[in-house]
Amino acid sequence: MIVRHLLRTHGADLKEVVAAVHYVGQATTRGYGRLSYEVGAEDGIGTIGAAWAPEDERNASFEFDPETMAGYHLNKLRLVEVELLDPVQVSTITEDVDAIIYCATDFEGNRPRAVASLNAAFLFRAVANPAKGRVEIEGVRNCLEGLVGGLTDRKWKERLEPGVDVADVDKLSKRSDPTQFVLVSTSPDAFGEFETPFGEFNGLKRQGERIVMEEFPSVSYSVLQMGKFDDNFVEEGQEVQYAVAEEDTVVVDGVINAVKPRASSG
After folding, report:
1. d(CA 177, CA 161)
2. Helix/strand/coil for 98
3. Do 99 and 179 meet the contact criterion of CB atoms below 8 Å apart?
4. CA triplet 263, 264, 266: central angle to 5 degrees?
5. Using alpha carbons only, how large is the chain's radius of gyration in Å?
6. Cα-Cα-Cα-Cα dihedral of 59, 63, 65, 66, to 10°?
7. Is there a contact between 258 and 195 (Cβ–Cβ < 8 Å)?
8. Which end of the chain is more exposed for a tag (fewer CB within 10 A), N or C?
9. 103 within 8 A of 19, measured Cβ to Cβ
10. How would you write the pLDDT of the chain (266 residues) with one tens digit per residue?
11. What is the 3-state secondary structure of 49-68?
């Protein structure tokens, strides 16, 4: 819902929203379909061919409907497919962006997708190339490095333009509006522990957060630790509750793990 909110709430002020569909191995249309539905691309005037129709008629098409979709700002949306663990691909899509909202994950809940959904692509990557990296760690770092590199290149290009005051360029480059990197993570108590070959689930989440907060001091950031709740028979318009995050990890043999809860006696 992030892309939908950006377009419909701030679409008039945005130049472009690049929605990156993460894939592993071979790209599929699954991510495109999910995103197109989310942003309302299917709200237009469309036709859907019957399943029993000839193959060339078994298609769906949608056209822009100005009466329904005028405020969707879909003309400012660009969908791209990217392997977040490939630094070259990531640097390409982050070349000219001002901010990144990072919500990609290797997990479904607290279980790896290869286990939770028996996803063949994720399972193949885990077996064939276990050292390729993790979306929670290397994916985050790739995006931050791409963002910083793009911002730095842009600043130097602006410095070289004739008649440009270097002081003004430096002043603009230090602004923190908008927040340059937003990491969507999970609250420590949202899910239970789940051990992986690269560390425990909560430990991986905290390690990704530390990368954002400690390794890139020039980037303004916000880390959102999302909770989990039962939405059955809950009224709308509830107050959003905020709390300061607490340390819940420990480093063991170079791997970040969750702190084991202390047993109470008495």
Report:
1. 24
2. coil
3. yes
4. 145
5. 22
6. 160
7. no
8. C
9. no
10. 788 888 888 888 899 999 887 765 555 555 666 677 778 877 888 888 888 888 888 887 778 888 888 888 888 988 888 889 899 999 999 988 999 999 988 887 777 766 545 555 555 555 555 556 788 999 999 999 999 998 888 887 777 777 766 666 555 555 556 899 999 998 888 887 888 777 788 888 999 999 999 999 989 999 998 887 766 666 767 777 777 766 666 666 655 566 655 544 44
11. CCCCCCHHHCCEEEECCHHH
The answer to whether 259 touches 250, Cβ cutoff 8 Å, is yes
Question: Which tokens go with 241?
Answer: 């509750």
Q: pTM (2 decimals)?
A: 0.74
Using DSSP, how many helices (H) and how many strands (E) does the chain show? 9, 13
| CA distance linking residue 164 with residue 158, whole number of Å | 7
Integer Cα distance of 168 and 63 in angstroms: 45
> Nearest 5 degrees, angle CA 134-CA 203-CA 22?
25
The span from the CA of 265 to the CA of 255, in Å, is 29
Total residues found in the chain within this entry: 266
Which residues make Cβ contacts (< 8 Å) with residue 69, sequence separation at least 6?
40, 43, 44
Choose among 102, 99, 122: nearest CA to 112: 122
